[in-house]
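Suppose a colleague, Dr. K., hands you the sequence of a protein chain of 154 amino acids and asks what its three-dimensional shape might be. Before reaching for any lab equipment, you can write down a predicted structure in token form. Begin with the sequence itself:
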Amino acid sequence: AQICQYPPPPPYICKYLQLNAFQQHQNIDTAKIAKIKILLTHPDLDMEPFFQKQLKLLPHVMSWFQRARSCHSNSSPSGRVLTRTQSQKHVLSRELSAVYKFIRGMPMVAADGYCKYVLKTALKRKRKLQLMIQKAEEEEEWAQKRLKPEPEYD
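The predicted structure, expressed as tokens, is then:
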């Protein structure tokens, strides 16, 4: 049975109707089809509305893209003839683009986050070195006590 019949809708609408029919026929989760439609309809997702929450939404955006990678497959009639690997690379490039837009849109927030990471790492190393110095001093003290010459009696 044809999806697009009388009068035929524009081709871009037929593509989405075919996805709906595919979803019903293959018993695929509606959310997966929705993600495919979003990625097909919006080749460049606008990240600016998310900037008001700064980087708090970035993990959710990344999670959405990771789930979207599993949505595309070569059996999907999404209008694109992509293998699973090509499709996942396509979604990954969109994910990297979204992260880039976040960082580009909030350079000081990203820079502050990086500086905090560097400071935390430096403090962790400093603590580790202090513990190593303390242990070395204790070992030195122990060795000096053991090697201290016995007092001579006349």
